[in-house]
């Protein structure tokens, strides 16, 4: 896993990270128009979406047009404390808001469409859309609510408050695996739990502690095509990686004062579709297979991009490339 680049404001889209740019701008140049305190991140069709808690909206880094934009909205679509975002293939966006206690839905042009929730029934942390269902983590009632995407009607809930298997306590983030199962991070129970889409408990991963495979404050979670699970721990300020059997493989990231560091990380996303945009940042001879996006709520870099890959000419024993697997 190799550090590639960072995004914090508009200048990061137009200035290459070169010796000359660092000479002109300075090593620690901060753009006042940039992100304040990010949480959720995703990437779709060449656009990186980052939710800015203090900016009360989400920002967009358009990698094609080299354009930076911020969406705040107003009236019914106003965001007061947005946390996470999910973007569908048609660019419909779902944003959780923990002050308004609703999920706010925007169309492909970032225009407000509707609300999910009435402001009283839940406090949403994360949101995931799978086909015609919307999954919403609720840190007030310690469950995951499932709504019909089209009608807005509630279908069922997953879990109940508690610490036993299948119970939840402060479910922070949610993602889906290649096997179409749900992974839910629990900040209060210091673990990851896996469920079927209809809410049946499968297993739990991790426990409280300070060693590998243990958690103190798990938040963002993502899964790669091989089923490896990436979990942000805001207390340890790193990302732990587990295999599909739940065994810890490694961790990466550490706090610090340089661009490569992550400071109070919140979310992580694994992406295969945008490798071509970032290959130029990799070390010569290092072929990227996928990228890993990590948000940091403090420090110089608000969004770091890492790349997973292999050096040309190196024999990785027991490891096949994506091309060979296909």
Question: How would you explain this protein's 3D organization?
Answer:
With 326 residues, the chain is mainly beta. 5% of the residues lie in helices and 47% in strands. The strands form seven sheets. It has a four-stranded antiparallel β-sheet with strand order 1-26-25-24, with no helix packed on it. It is globular, with a radius of gyration of 19 Å. The model is unreliable at 17-31 and 321-326 (pLDDT under 50).
Question: Could you outline the blueprint of secondary structure elements for this entry?
Answer:
Layout: E1 2-7, H1 19-25, E2 38-44, E3 47-52, E4 57-62, E5 67-71, E6 82-87, E7 93-97, E8 102-106, E9 112-116, E10 124-130, E11 133-138, E12 143-148, E13 154-158, E14 171-176, E15 182-186, E16 191-195, E17 201-205, E18 207-208, E19 214-215, E20 218-223, E21 229-233, E22 238-242, E23 248-252, E24 263-271, H2 275-278, E25 286-298, E26 303-311, H3 322-325
Parallel strand pairs: 18-19
Antiparallel strand pairs: 1-26, 2-3, 3-4, 4-5, 6-7, 7-8, 8-9, 10-11, 11-12, 12-13, 14-15, 15-16, 16-17, 20-21, 21-22, 22-23, 24-25, 25-26
